[in-house]
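2024-03-11 09:14:02 DEBUG pipeline.ingest accepted 1 chain
2024-03-11 09:14:02 DEBUG pipeline.ingest length=864
2024-03-11 09:14:03 DEBUG pipeline.predict start
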Amino acid sequence: MMNRDDGIAEATGTVDLTACDREPIHALGAVQPFGFLIAVSPDWLIARVSENAPDWLHRPVEALLGLPLEAVFDVEAVHLLRGHLQTLRGPDAVDRIFAVDLLEGGAPFDVALHLSGAVIVIEAEPSSPETLSAGNIVRGMAGRLQQAGSFEAFCREAARQMRVLTGFDRVMVYRFAHDGSGEVVAEARRSGLEPYLGLHYPASDIPRQARALYERSWLRIIADVDAPLAAILPPRDPEGQPLDLSLGTLRAVSPIHLEYLRNMGVAASLSVSILRGGRLWGLFACHHTEPRRISLERRTAAELFGQMFSWILEGREREAEAANEVRSRELHNRLMGVLASGGTSLETLIEFLDDLAAVVPCDGIGVWVNGEATLQGTTPTAEEFAGLVRFLNRTAASRVYATDEIGRIHEPGRDFAMRAAGLLAIPISRTPRDFLVFFRREVARTVTWAGDPRKPAEPGANGLRLTPRKSFEAWQEVVRGRALPWSGPELRTAESLRITLLEVILRLTDTAEKERKGAQERQELLIAELNHRVRNILNLIRGVVSQSRANAASVEDFAGIVGGRIQALARAHDQITSTNWGPGSLRDLVTLEAGAYLGAKADRVRLSGSDVLLEPQAFSTLALVVHELMTNSVKYGALGAAEGWVDLRWERDADERLVIDWRESGGPAVQAPTRRGFGTTLIERSIPYELRGEAEIRYVLTGLEARFAVPATYVGAAPQAVRTSAGVAAGAPPPAPHLTGSVLVVEDNMIIALEAEEILGAMGAPSVDLAGSTREALRLIEAAPPHLALLDVNLGTETSVPVARRLAELGIPYLFATGYGESFRLPADLGAVPVIKKPYTEETLRRALAAAEPGAVRPAPPAP
């Protein structure tokens, strides 16, 4: 497929545009002439040089290849480059150094440094004599940006400031639509230039490959469209690959794009990416009618301003979305309260169409219940609606469905596009399929394109490559049959409404309907809730992993830190799920953490106070805080000393808040840390941030002291006899026998299976076989009976109970692993079998094996 490369398009960097969908994004094997490039191998030998390397290198370009970098650059300069290379972090990291004396006594150069695979790429250009404080400049620019009121004023001010910073004749803010097309939403230009504000460009003007490159590299400059390029020698490495300059500051661009700029009357350009959530939102596109090169330092300031603009933009959009979601939630709560108490059947929804229409902006609304249609506002007819429902029955039943052009996906929809061009459908039952549908009428609008977007491409002098268009006259198109698109916040509001209505339906359904349909509807509601909780847990674990790496001195230390924190969360989760997501005991929480760290010496944590119950949110937060306090005390404080102890007291104050005091004694002298790690941050900020409580840490010479206050809304009185939560038992684990035979692991999650394989290997198992299904497990058992088996209870669409029964028949010991917690019940015919709860560790597994019957861990004889 051929891609056009016009508009304010970024060239893909490949010579043959017909190969864009097959080839990676590379530069053209050349750089722009205002700077030069040297690529160095990992051992700092020169591997490639641009042919415009300066004369002061005193050697022909070809003679530089294979020389140590110190042979051409000053030793101090090389030392500086090596040091900055050490600071590069991440796959697309770039570092810049300004006013570097590459040759002793020579003119200074600005240097850009990055990695291209295993090659170190050094790009240098003459340093500008100007002194520029990029940080102060951009800080002032960002301050003026934040004062802009509307979105239009915000973008207009950004374009104006970028033009002042760069000095280009024209600066545009170019925004991408969801389909890849784009629009100039703001512009700052010198007088006499034709305005581009409001012009649209098709998606092919900036191809997918170029957009991907913009997400990796924030900055691209073309100083002179007519300047001859400098080739990189040799053009290919010994493996036949060109040098990937996706992150290069000097990289050349497609000759087609240069020809386009010439046709447009542009002699120089600068592009700065605008990202939202790591994805390309738009560009600052800068054009100049004469050749123009601004210094690397000033370009860096422009890049920094682009990043600041991106972050401020993202913050504004998130604030607007949050406010909209709050308003929607209030409407949901009112609607749910009225519906839950006002009727006995699903048809009750019909009485509240006005309330439903207020949740999502629309022109009409329809409800399809038990084969009957109710319509209000601007909608299709009842017959047309019935045909539309037949189409919607082919869509997924577990999520909303939205389109702004019904006629494109449902041909009969073209006949009623003026009344209903867009729809947002919420399935509110599974069998029969009932729907709540919001409609939007057609919005005919005129779109002004920079040229006819449907004009066929014509091959020209470039052969199979495209010839850029030479006409830039505005071309208008009247778009019909489409409604205003449904925004992201509106789709999320609809999804929340779907969950709300599912709950309402459960309340309105009579007993007979509950018996027939309740299981499916509850399952859908639970899936939605489970998805929400799993995403929260995954985000929490991702944050724990990301923040923990700064405290780790090694991979093993990192694994221990992360594992400890996740185990603390798991223990807390066990306690609050054992009461169906109810409150958990504070005393149990501390006791379990102390037992996990101190074993038989857990009484060194002395507890004082009447037990209280904490709501799940507060319980999980306190679990992490107590875990970090225990960890730090064992590593650096009182619990790490033979005679040290911790006094932990709690009480309710006059406002019924829970006040907790932690005091360490008998340990080494304590000094305040010189830096704040993630653990300290958790202790100091978790309770204030998540619970709106208080936290205070005092580094007293005799031992750490801490005080926490948890608001009364999260705290309840505990009954006289508080249950003992299941979990890690206090006391040192008895030694488990060394595994000497093969082990079978039955687990449908590959990562968990591999983790179990490593744990069992560390426990001495000479071989571990993995099976992801009952059928595979039974096959392995018949082929070579194991000495021991570890069975995951749930294997997706089946359970491992048949495998357990076969192992029992053969007299082979086994354990169950389950994520169901206390709710898991063994079939009666299996008898007493050790069960461990996920997530488990080597210590958990050793405990289970050691606590099992004596014969459970001895190698069983193979079956005859």
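2024-03-11 09:14:41 DEBUG pipeline.report The domain at 343-441+485-530 is CATH 3.30.450.270 (Beta-Lactamase).
2024-03-11 09:14:41 DEBUG pipeline.predict end
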